[in-house]
Structures are given as C-alpha cells and as structure tokens.
Write a structure and sequence with these properties.
8 helices, single chain
Length: 179
C-alpha cells in the first residue's frame, strides 16, 4: 500500500486498474462472458429434473431494474443469441424473448420500484412464466407444435428465477453496483 503512495508510476497504474473506460470494458466483458459460462455450466451439470434457473434471463431483468430498458435489451439480445446458438430449436426465439423481457421489465420499472428484492422477485416469476408461454406459442407458430418443457420446468424455473433475482438484487446493493 505504501508503494502506491510513494511512486507516481504505481499510482497511475492503480488508477488504470480500478477506474476508467478500459477497466469498465474489461469488467463488462468478463461479466458478460462469465454469465454465459455460468448459464451453460449450471444447465449442463446441475439441472433439477430438467429445470434450472435461467441466469441470463434473471441478469437481463436485474439490469433492467437498475439501468433501464435499453442496456437490458442489448444484453438480453446478445445473451439470447448465445442461447439460440447453444440450442438447435427456434433460432432467434431466445434473443427475441430476452430482448422483450428486458423491455417489459424496464417499462415496469417506471411503475413499480424494482430496486427492492421482493418486487423484483415477483416480477421475475411472472416474466419467466410469460417467457415460457411465449416460447411455446412461438413454437406453435413457427415449428407447428407448442414447445412444451414439461411441468417441472413450469413449476420450478419461475421459483428458482425469483429467488435468484432477489439474491442478485441484494448482492448488487451490497457490492455497490450503482456507483
């Protein structure tokens, strides 16, 4: 710690590593790619009867609750493309649904305070049910069959997403994500 105070060369290095546009871009890239890795890893290894929390949907809603509809729509679109590439069904549906979820949560944010964990969890449960239902109807329209994930997914995924959203909101506030 004393080295950083004595030498200006080290102070400028410390400032570069903690603040500035380059570090923000690095943090964002690490967060973005880490979220995709977490979604893939959890769904591959820890799904519970075929149901797993949808981290990318929850993070899209969390971004919408904190930053508004546009950043969440951009993140949701990119994450949705990742989900579409990783699954071979209804290409574009996940990008459409996560973008729409970010928009809806960003608009709901104007009416309901989604910064608190409880309202965000409730909104996440309802948005997850809406995403599952809309995904099924998109399958009905484009694949000629309702994309049904099974009753376990319909029952457990919204609850897991709601709990994850509440935990994410608390973690965001504790970590000081709005600084």
């Amino acid at each position: 710690h004393l080295i950083f105070q004595r030498h200006s060369r080290f102070r400028s290095c410390k400032v570069f590593l903690t603040r500035g546009p380059r570090m923000n871009a690095l943090r964002f890239t690490a967060f973005y790619l880490g979220a995709m890795l977490l979604q893939w890893w959890w769904n591959t290894h820890f799904s519970y009867w075929g149901a797993a929390p949808q981290f990318l949907l929850v993070l899209t809603l969390l971004i919408a609750s904190r930053r508004g509809p546009v950043p969440s729509m951009l993140a949701g679109f990119g994450w949705g493309l990742f989900l579409d590439i990783s699954r071979a069904e209804l290409f574009g549906a996940s990008a459409f649904l996560l973008t729409g979820a970010g928009y809806v949560a960003g608009m709901v944010r104007k009416q309901i305070d989604l910064r608190a964990a409880g309202p965000l969890a409730a909104c996440t449960v309802f948005v997850t049910l809406g995403v599952l239902l809309t995904h099924g109807f998109l399958g009905l329209v484009f694949a000629k069959s309702f994309e049904h994930f099974g009753w376990r997914v319909w029952l457990f995924t919204p609850l897991m997403n709601g709990m994850l959203a509440a935990a994410g909101a608390i973690l965001w506030d504790v970590a000081g994500g709005d600084r």
